[in-house]
């Protein structure tokens, strides 16, 4: 009897094992234990992604699932039920990675460890190993303690690269071949770190960078040698895609639903663009910035215009950190020959792209005003935030246009539709790639051919980067459009409920409420904002 009780205590929340009702505090305890477990143990100083360790840990994983399933949450406040679903989503992500995605086996880019810049979403896009070195968090020249920390972090790279040669046994050709590009970039980034450290770099720092470069170059040689033998598909298939979207990212759509949605948005963006062009046919054409001074003036004006628009139109409550957050990412002038899709747009009018920088306001809020729930204070694992962050950033581009941001600049409305068409085209290509109906290159063809004005044909690196990411991270390429759709649905429900109560709808109320809920899947945010749980029940009842 004692043995049975002990096992119950290991598997279930203590309160449940003792015959008590498990509450929200028990969930927070489980979450803390789960996050500690999710980080793999070390092997030779690097995270251990070997098959034998995963098999051993998978047995432990089942105990965490059992603890989560033991909760009865029906009577909890919605915000607490939402947190339970977030923990469920992360556990489902772990399970899916183990069963299907297997980035440590199939995806060489998983081992890319050196990150020079912060992502514009809560965590780095795509599957990322647990030993990443966030160079952007360091201030150069390095202090002695900072250098010691950097050296310690970089020491994980040589054993991780050696382990990658053992672990990478997959046959996903597009992931394999394109991943070589990421590892070559790591060599360049290590050189950049050494350059940043300058002449003051210690012997230890120089040595660990040299060792890390050598280990990375060895991995590159291995990948190049094995590449000709890789012949298999890289997509996960329609059924796996649907399961992943619904049970990990809480997007209440199937692969087929997403194809229909993205085709519709692509058609709508193109037709709306042509209508805008027809309306503006007698207006002078837009003129791109031709020098650094012109671009800087345009960018600074765009930031001012956006923030003033938030206030004047009562779109959302403006916090002191919002304007600096956008302004910090205005970019710089690029000669015409060096512009990619996004910089082509920003050199005509930066504002449409800068509204997408809603991202940076959200990150500033996450840093300065963290959510009170420990579950939501940092980035959700497995890019679960994508429908919320990418969907909102894309959604507000059109929403703010309709709310009047370009009333005095009608040509800028054309840019909004071009941006939307590009997001729909690239996402549609990614859907066909995951269904193994197209190679990554063929998906890129959809991406290029259906972006208006040929703006995706000017600089191929962007297309390769985007399609590779979307193949690595299922659903990320579509999240801009699926999240936008779900955001629009949440707005409609929120507004109708206000009208049904006889209240005047205020846009500020919607965005302030959304922001306070933080970076969680839109379907869960909608439930918390409106009490409508039909999307969540569709997901959980089906599985």
What tags apply to this protein structure?
543 residues, mainly alpha, Methane Monooxygenase Hydroxylase, Chain G, domain 1, 3 domains, two-stranded antiparallel ribbon, two-stranded parallel sheet, 65% helix, globular, disordered N terminus
Description:
The chain is mostly helical. It folds into three domains: 25-101, no CATH class; 106-234, Methane Monooxygenase Hydroxylase, Chain G, domain 1, CATH 1.20.58; 239-542, no CATH class. It contains 25 helices and four strands. It has helices at 2-11, 14-17, 24-38, 51-69, 78-101, 103-106, 144-154, 157-167, 173-197, 203-226, 238-247, 255-279, 292-312, 322-327, 341-348, 351-356, 358-368, 386-402, 410-434, 440-449, 460-472, 476-500, 507-517, 522-530, 534-542, and strands at 42-43, 46-47, 114-115, 133-134. It has a two-stranded antiparallel sheet. Helix 18 (386-402) crosses helix 22 and helix 19 packs across helix 21. The longest helix is centred in the middle third of the chain and has 25 residues, at 173-197. The chain is globular and about 65 Å long.
